[in-house]
Specification:
Order of helices and strands: HHHHH
Number of helices: 5
Structural class: mainly alpha
Radius of gyration: 18 Å
Largest sheet: none
Shape: elongated
Number of strands: 0
Number of domains: 1
Oligomer: single chain
Distance between the termini: 34 Å
């Protein structure tokens, strides 16, 4: 059994908080201005994932690997963002017209997962890998540099 040296809520749940922060920022920005350049909500996803990954790596535990942590947080937050965006579309565009119809919610979910799921997963994994690699290199340099 390994004695863990971290303390505090943020360090204990850094991955969960990073995912939630990423999803909330992505969807808040999407609600404010639902725009797209390449696919629906792409800039919002990049901004939200970057902030969530920054928070995750700021409070990362010592035994967590960089790239694995980044890929897990990026992938999870991108999929949850996509699901929440489909809920927003269902709430704001379908319920006022058709009423509370869960079949339309299922159609929105399947439509967004089929059309945008691959792009969201790719962006989440790439951002997670890049952040993980960046923070791994920063810590390697910090360990190798002599301390006076």
């Amino acid at each position: 059994m390994v004695a863990e040296t971290y303390s505090g809520f943020a360090q204990r749940y850094s991955m969960v908080i990073g995912v939630l922060l990423s999803v909330l920022i992505t969807n808040t920005l999407f609600l404010i201005r639902p725009t797209e350049f390449f696919f629906l909500g792409d800039i919002m996803l990049v901004i939200g994932d970057c902030i969530g990954l920054f928070f995750t790596f700021k409070y990362r535990k010592e035994y967590q690997t960089h790239i694995k942590t980044g890929v897990i947080v990026g992938l999870t937050s991108s999929i949850l963002s996509l699901l929440l965006i489909s809920f927003f579309y269902w709430i704001f565009y379908s319920i006022p017209v058709d009423g509370l119809d869960f079949i339309i919610l299922l159609q929105f979910l399947l439509f967004f997962l089929m059309n945008l799921g691959i792009m969201y997963v790719i962006v989440g994994v790439i951002l997670g890998y890049l952040f993980g690699n960046l923070y791994r290199k920063k810590e390697d340099v910090a360990k190798k540099s002599p301390q006076f």
